[in-house]
Structure formats: structure tokens, C-alpha cells
Specification:
The complex is a heterodimer. Chain A has ten helices and ten strands. By secondary structure, chain A is α/β, with parallel strands linked by helices. In chain A, helix 3 crosses helix 5 and helix 3 packs antiparallel against helix 10. Chain B folds into two domains: 61 residues, Rossmann fold; 172 residues, 3-Layer(aba) Sandwich (Rossmann fold), CATH 3.40.50. In chain B, 35% of the residues lie in helices and 12% in strands. Chain B is built from ten helices and nine strands. The chains are: A alpha/beta, B alpha/beta. At the A-B interface, helix 3, helix 4, helix 5 and helix 10 of A face helix 3, helix 4, helix 5 and helix 10 of B.
């Protein structure tokens, strides 16, 4: 059977692609990943076996964007906490427990203005948010203008001004622990941190401390390290944290589109044609 | 008057001979008997504009939370004691690209449409009056003279009407049955706009998919109410205007109205 395998469609990081597996599949030509992040794959190792790789950047972006906006709004308006209060056996509650912060007119700092970051800016504009962004490279003037976004060459400026900091980068050696103690201390005490990229982009221990001491107001995380977190992790106990189970791309439509995009790439690779979203090591 | 208290009735009005003005917090005045007040020569004000943005924001928050199962995902999965892994087949539905039907296209409804537009939602609306062409095209909204047309086509039905005798139980068994079985009902207006018993039945029998309610009748619901037990329902404790800044602005508006009422000047935000 292993002689026959020419393609692998990787669903949620399984199977694990290691040397042993690659050696056992001599006719493997392509691995297509069911997401955009490739940080779980050893790209050089795979390329070394002459196997091509693809991700699915188009299929995932809209759902991930909506997750980011959903988490921003849910955190700002304390939706999860309020729902708990609405259902709780005691009906008395303090107004102070349900007051949130405004989204319309607030300042949003987007760290990582790629495809996903830009679509977030498009939505945030309709909420009349003041948009700052930090990115490896600056976007074209027309693109900035279309969403009213201001480039921050230094991340510090963005962190100091933003009411909401949304992290939308891919995980690379450069972005590991991108947001740590130093960055959180630059943030406003009334600010909210939202992470829809990878858990390892944020220094989780520093985040726990920052949330416990009120260094920042709140956090909303669709991703953590690991996933799921150990059940006794302090992040699970903090009232000012929303954690969702990496549901960024988990919709029926997107699951379908991901598979379509992956299959397109697989077929192209098997037919020796250019792949729509090939990932090079 | 904060959150409908105190209750303005004959007894109270008779006991306060020098009462000149009642300033009500929020925009809704369905809890006040206007005729009764004016028969005692007492003026009434509300705070209509300052609450609209936060309420529209909350409408969007509820739509996103419901469609992507954010509350369920966080409570039952991410932070639950029993979770060992996140199941691969647990899915929500996309908000982007879906059809939104706004029932009540006043200030709040229109702001929801503005926010929904970049999500590439198809926007339908039903209102007493059609909005003008510029307003419609600015948000890409299509008028549905018959509410039935809106209900048939919408993936999300958002209620942003004021409560009047005409809108009481506007959404009942008939309307719920016209909705898609994959549709979600969002209510940011008043609990009484929906026939709550019919809603419970519709949710239990999967006539509609889900509901997200910032308002119920009464508020809060009795602790054994079926709505509190349904997995496909999000309930929030009437937090439409619950941000620090807006609450402060509401109070400032109310004080302005009271001061004007006491000095015999024209009252800002007077309700006639």
C-alpha cells in the first residue's frame, strides 16, 4: 500500500510527517495542508525527499477574519461573562460586572497585515475604528487609504495607542514570543489582546501575569500553546479571558472550500502542473 | 428613571404634586404611560441617539457569537474540565456571505446594516416606510414590503423595532415557520416583540436553528425557564447600551433634560 501513496491530505496536523513516514512512502509527491499555517511541518525535511507542499490560504481567510471580529466584540462587550450571568441561579448582579468597552470609534492595532489582517481592517472600518497596523512591509497607499489604516513602522507606537491589539501573523522564528512582557507593558491598561494566529506568538506566562495584575484589560484567544491547555492552566480560570477551541476555520462552508483548494493543489502536483498555493521551504 | 424603575403609576404621580419631568434611560419608552404622565402635566424625555451605536455593535456581536458558536466553544470546550482534545467535526457557520434580514430599519437597524456590509452579507430589510435610494445603496439593502419575503430568505433575522401595539408578538409561530430551518433569530429590541412560547417550541423542534437574545420578557427570566436550558440559545442581560462611556453619556443627557424641565426651557430629547 505504501508504494501506492502519492499524496497526503493533512487534516489538523495528522498524520505527523516525520522522517520515518517519508521514508516509508517512496512515491509520495505532494502534501496538502488543510490550513494556512505550516509551522507544524519541517519544510526542509519534506523538500529533501522531493515532496511538494501546499497550503490553502484563500479558503481559510474569511472565516478566520470573522473569528477575529467575533472575539473582539465578545471580549469588548463581555458576552461570555454576561451569558453566564444571565443563566446563573442568582438573578442579582452588579452593573459593574456587565459594563464593557466601546468598539465603535476605538483604536484597533493590527499586527500582521496580510490577507487576513487586511480583511479585518475592512470590517473594522465599518465600526468607525481608527486602524493602525504593523507589518514586515508597508502596504500600498491605495490599500491603506481604502481602510483608513496608518502604518506603524515600530510596533511600540501601535501598542501604546491601541484599544484592541489583534495578532494576525504566521508563526516563524521571528514571531515566536512576539508579544511578551515588554510589549504588554507598552499596551494601555484598558486594552484588549486578541490572538487568531498561533499560541506561540504570545508569551503565555507573561500574559497570565499581565491579566492577573490588570496590566491589560482582557484577552481573547482562539489559539494557545498547547491546544488544548492543561485543565489546571491559570488562563482557564481568569474572568477576563475568552478562550475558544481553535475554531477559526471551523465552518461547514470553509471545511468544504479547504478540501477543494487542497485537492486542486494535489491534482496539479500529480499532473506536473504549477500548484496554485505551493509552499517552498 | 433607570431600567424602568420606579414604576410610574397614578399613586406615585398623585404623591408628587411638584413633579415636572421624568427622564428615562435608554430609547425605549414602552414601559411608560405617556397619556397618564401628560394628564398630570409631567414631561418625559429619553436618550435615543446615544445608545444606538453600542446596541448595533451588540447586534453584530450576537450574530458572530451565535454563528461561530463562541459561547458554546468557550464554555463547553476550551475551558471545560473534561476536554482532552478539540473534535475535528465541530463546526459553526460563516457570517460572511450570509443573508441578513433586518426587521426595523431605524437608527439602530441602519447602523447594523452599515456594519454588516463589509462582511459581504446580503442585506434585506422590512420597515414601516422604505428608506430613500441613497440610504439603501450606501449599505446595499433591499426593501421587503412583506415581512414574509424577508423571513423566507434570511439566514439571520435581526429585530430592531421599538415595542408598540403593532410590534407586540410581531414574531410568532407563523413567522418562525416562515424562517429557514438553518436561520438564527437575533433580538436587540424588546422581549415582547417575540412570542416567547412559540420561540421555545420552534427551537426545541428545530423549526429554526438558534436564537441570541439581549432582551426577554420578563427580564430576567425565571430560573426554570426553558430558554435558559437550550444549547442553541445565547442570552445576555440587556447589555445593549452597557459600556462605561455610553452609560455616562446617557446620564449626562438625562441631567440636561431634567435641568431644562425644571427651568421651563425646551427639553432636549422630549418624548411627545
Amino acid at each position: 500500500l505504501s508504494e501506492k501513496v502519492q499524496a497526503i491530505y493533512l487534516w489538523w496536523h495528522k498524520p505527523v510527517i516525520d522522517r520515518e513516514l517519508l521514508q516509508s512512502l517512496p512515491n509520495l509527491k505532494v502534501i496538502a495542508n488543510s490550513g494556512v499555517g505550516m509551522d507544524h511541518l519541517d519544510l526542509k525535511l519534506i523538500a529533501g525527499f522531493g515532496v511538494k507542499m501546499a497550503n490553502v490560504p484563500h479558503a481559510v481567510s474569511t472565516s478566520t477574519v470573522d473569528t477575529g471580529m467575533g472575539l473582539l466584540l465578545a471580549s469588548a462587550r463581555r458576552l461570555v461573562e454576561s451569558h453566564r450571568i444571565a443563566l446563573s441561579p442568582g438573578v442579582e448582579y452588579n452593573e459593574v460586572d456587565i459594563l464593557g468597552v466601546e468598539v465603535t470609534g476605538a483604536t484597533l492595532g493590527i499586527i500582521g497585515m496580510g490577507r487576513i489582517g487586511y480583511k479585518i481592517a475592512l470590517r473594522a472600518k465599518a465600526f468607525e475604528m481608527n486602524i493602525l497596523y504593523h507589518n514586515r512591509t508597508r502596504r500600498k497607499e491605495q490599500e491603506e487609504h481604502a481602510v483608513g489604516a496608518t502604518y506603524c513602522e515600530k510596533i511600540d507606537y501601535l501598542l501604546q495607542q491601541a484599544d484592541f491589539v489583534m495578532v494576525v501573523v504566521s508563526l516563524t522564528p521571528q514571531t515566536r514570543n512576539l508579544i511578551g512582557k515588554r510589549e504588554m507593558e507598552l499596551m494601555k491598561p484598558t486594552a484588549t489582546l486578541i490572538n487568531i494566529s498561533r499560541g506561540a506568538v504570545i508569551d503565555q506566562e507573561a500574559l497570565v501575569t499581565a491579566l492577573q495584575t490588570g496590566r491589560i484589560r482582557a484577552a481573547a484567544l482562539d489559539v494557545t500553546y498547547p491546544e488544548p491547555l492543561p485543565r489546571d492552566h491559570p488562563l482557564l480560570k481568569l474572568k477576563n479571558v475568552i478562550i475558544t477551541p481553535h475554531l477559526g476555520i471551523k465552518t461547514d462552508k470553509t471545511a468544504y472550500m479547504i478540501t477543494e483548494e487542497a485537492v486542486e493543489n494535489i491534482l496539479a502536483a500529480l499532473n506536473g502542473l504549477p500548484m496554485p498555493s505551493e509552499v517552498l521551504p | 428613571m433607570w431600567y424602568h424603575k420606579p414604576d410610574i403609576n397614578e399613586e406615585l404621580l398623585q404623591s408628587l404634586p411638584n413633579l415636572k419631568v421624568v427622564a428615562s434611560s435608554g430609547v425605549g419608552i414602552d414601559h411608560v404611560d405617556l397619556n397618564l404622565l401628560s394628564s398630570y402635566g409631567v414631561k418625559l424625555s429619553n436618550t435615543p441617539f446615544v445608545v444606538s451605536t453600542d446596541t448595533a455593535d451588540l447586534g453584530m456581536a450576537l450574530m458572530l457569537a451565535s454563528s461561530r458558536r463562541l459561547v458554546e466553544g468557550s464554555h463547553q470546550m476550551a475551558v471545560s474540565h473534561d476536554t482532552e482534545y478539540f473534535p475535528a467535526d465541530w463546526l459553526g457557520t460563516d457570517l460572511s456571505g450570509a443573508t441578513l434580514g433586518i426587521v426595523g430599519m431605524g437608527t439602530i437597524g441602519y447602523k447594523v446594516a452599515q456594519r454588516a456590509k463589509p462582511f459581504e452579507m446580503k442585506i434585506l430589510y422590512h420597515n414601516r416606510n422604505q428608506r430613500n435610494k441613497e440610504e439603501e445603496s450606501a449599505v446595499g439593502a433591499i426593501y421587503c414590503k412583506k415581512i414574509d419575503d424577508l423571513l423566507h430568505q434570511s439566514d439571520f433575522v435581526l429585530l430592531s423595532v421599538s415595542l408598540t401595539p403593532q410590534t407586540h408578538k410581531l414574531i410568532g409561530k407563523r413567522e418562525l415557520e416562515l424562517m429557514k430551518p438553518t436561520a438564527t433569530l437575533i433580538n436587540i429590541s424588546r422581549g415582547l416583540v417575540v412570542d416567547q412560547d412559540a420561540l421555545v417550541e420552534a427551537l426545541q423542534n428545530k423549526v429554526i436553528k438558534a436564537a441570541a437574545l439581549d432582551v426577554t420578557y420578563p427580564e430576567p427570566l425565571p430560573r426554570d425557564h426553558p430558554l435558559l436550558k437550550l444549547k442553541n440559545v445565547i442570552i445576555t442581560p440587556h447589555i445593549g447600551s452597557a459600556t462605561k462611556k455610553t452609560r455616562r453619556l446617557m446620564m449626562e443627557n438625562m441631567i440636561e433634560s431634567i435641568q431644562a424641565g425644571l427651568t421651563g426651557l425646551p427639553i432636549p430629547n422630549e418624548v411627545l
